[in-house]
Each structure stands twice: as structure tokens, then as C-alpha cells.
Specification:
single chain, about 170 residues, Rossmann fold, 9 strands, about 20% helix, binds inosinic acid, binds magnesium ion
Length: about 170
């Protein structure tokens, strides 16, 4: 597989994002909400670079992607969502593709009246966006290719790869 973003480049960018978030949330504490399962590796690295008091919780989103790119019905599981009322919430996901997942989660969390709500992703596939608002923080803008590694999977595989790699298309 072809490497798109090396582990060293990811590491460096995560440090920069952590610095930015530390500055932007100065004097505040955070509630970080990771979107399972793709966000876990990025979240684990990023939260350790945000030098602010924080609580961490998780929600689950799945869009029944049998094929690599066609998203089906979006299902959200919010059982693990901590109390967000009056809190500064930062939602973390691996990738912003069409943006439907984060937009739907934002509506759910917004209805619980947080003090603020922002989103952070490692990757942003800008060409595929179908929702009005992009992510507030992102690591890298990438072209429209199916990528795996650093938390991102294809049919459950490749999440453990330390770099972001392009999955070869089948035809
Ligand atoms: P969205 O709702 O279209 O923004 O899709 C977001 C979700 O789709 C992400 O959380 C990923 O789980 C999945 N996804 C989108 N593009 C890719 C990719 O290139 N590789 C792996 N998963 C992807
Ligand atoms: Mg995901």
C-alpha cells in the first residue's frame, strides 16, 4: 500500500493541533467525545497534547459501509455520552468525509445544551463534503481516496497501521 501521510508527519501535526487547542481553550476545561471506533488512536495521541483539564467519553456511529465509499443509513449510539450540559465539548473523529456523521452528532449534542461545541478530525476529504459546515480543527486535507491506518479501517482491518495509507481500488 502507498503511504499518504507518514507516522512522523502525523506525530508532528498532532503536536501542533494540541498546541492550538491548548491555546484556544485557555482557562477552560474540556469534555472530549470520541467517535468509535476510528477516532481512538488519534484521540489517544491528541488528548495527551492538550494541556487542559478534560473528561473523555465516547459515542458510536456506523453507516453500514459494505463497500469502501458508499455510506448507508447512519446509526448513532449515545449510551456512553457523558453529561455535556454547560461544558465545552470537543468532538473527535478520524475523518470528515461527507460530514454526515459529525453533523448528526452535533445536532444530538447541541440539543443537550453544551457551553460550546467544536469538532476536530485528523483528515478532511474536502471534495466529498455534503454538509454546510466543515470541521473546526483538522490535521490534513486529503484528496478523494479511500485511506486506512492510524485508526481508519477497511472492513475492520488496518486500524493499527502507524501511517495513513491509500487502499488500492479493486479495478
Ligand atoms: P462521513 O459521515 O461521510 O463524514 O463519514 C465519516 C466516517 O466514514 C468516518 O468516521 C469513517 O469511519 C468513514 N470513512 C470515510 N472515509 C473513509 C476512508 O477513506 N477510510 C476509512 N473510513 C472512512
Ligand atoms: Mg468512523
Amino acid at each position: 500500500m502507498q503511504t499518504l501521510i507518514s507516522s512522523a508527519a502525523i506525530e508532528q501535526r498532532v503536536v501542533e493541533m494540541g498546541r492550538q487547542l491548548t491555546a484556544d481553550y485557555e482557562d477552560r476545561s474540556l469534555t472530549v467525545i470520541g467517535v468509535l471506533s476510528g477516532s481512538v488512536i488519534f484521540l489517544a495521541d491528541l488528548v495527551r497534547r492538550i494541556e487542559r483539564p478534560q473528561q473523555i467519553g465516547f459515542v458510536q456511529a456506523s453507516s453500514y459501509r459494505g463497500e469502501t465509499t458508499e455510506a448507508g443509513t447512519l446509526t448513532l449510539m449515545l449510551d456512553g455520552l457523558p453529561d455535556v450540559r454547560g461544558r465545552d465539548v470537543l468532538m473527535i473523529d478520524d475523518i470528515f468525509d461527507t460530514g454526515r456523521t459529525l453533523a448528526a452528532l452535533q445536532r444530538e449534542i447541541q440539543s443537550r445544551e453544551p457551553a460550546s461545541l467544536k469538532t476536530a478530525v485528523l483528515l478532511w476529504k474536502t471534495a466529498r463534503q455534503t454538509v454546510a459546515q466543515g470541521p473546526d480543527y483538522w490535521g490534513f486535507q486529503i484528496p478523494d481516496a479511500f485511506v486506512v491506518g492510524y485508526g481508519l479501517d477497511y472492513a475492520g482491518d488496518y486500524r493499527h497501521l502507524p501511517e495513513i495509507a491509500v487502499l488500492p481500488s479493486e479495478n
